Amino acid sequence: MVLIPTLQLTLEDIIMATINITDATFEQDVLNSDKPVVLDFWAPWCGPCKQIGPSLEEISDEMKGDIIVAKVNIDENPITPTKYGVRGIPTMLVFQGGEAKATKVGAVSKSAIVEWIKDSIA
After folding, report:
1. Structural domain that includes position 38
2. Which band of pLDDT confidence, cut at 50, 70 and 90, is reported for residue 101?
3. Helix segments in the chain, DSSP class H
4. Is residue 46 flagged as an active site residue?
5. 96: in domain
6. Is residue 1 a part of any domain in this protein?
7. 116 within some domain
8. What are phi and psi of 7, to 5 degrees?
């Protein structure tokens, strides 16, 4: 008999266009990415984080050939936000070529996020 492990996916995992980053995967998935990465530092209890979440999902889908949109849950992964001086959430950073290029703090409109991303990766 051969046991095949099952993949444990939630509905949220299937419909989310963004990827989840952990402290352990940060270097590989963000710093070593060949595309610019928009990294959203968030927490499940954060109201403004929940406000921008759907916009980030849409942006991830709409700009999927140009950027990667990723999220770090700061409660589960405290090392990365501390390293980058994240003091409030939501905080978004654009990483390109292994470096943080731009920071945006607070909940803003989808159009403002898109403009900020385009300006940051130009």
Report:
1. 22-121
2. very high
3. 11-15, 26, 47-62, 79-83, 110-121
4. yes
5. yes
6. no
7. yes
8. -80, 125
**Cα 80 to Cα 3, 69, 76, distances in angstroms:** 36, 16, 10
| Catalytic residue (choose from 30, 39, 49, 94) | 49
Domain count, the chain: 1
Structure tokens belonging to residue 8 = 């444990």
Give the amino acid at 107.
A
Q: Over the stretch 13-56, which tens digit does the pLDDT of each residue have? A: 444 578 999 999 999 999 999 999 999 999 999 999 999 999 99
Looking at the domain assignment, is residue 9 inside a domain? no
| 39 contacts 26 by C-beta, under 8 angstroms | no
Q: Please tell me which residue in 46, 59, 86, 93 is annotated as part of the active site.
A: 46
Assess whether 34 carries a catalytic annotation: no
- Annotate 7-41 with DSSP letters as a single string: P---HHHHH--SEE--TTTHIIIIIT-SS-EEEEE
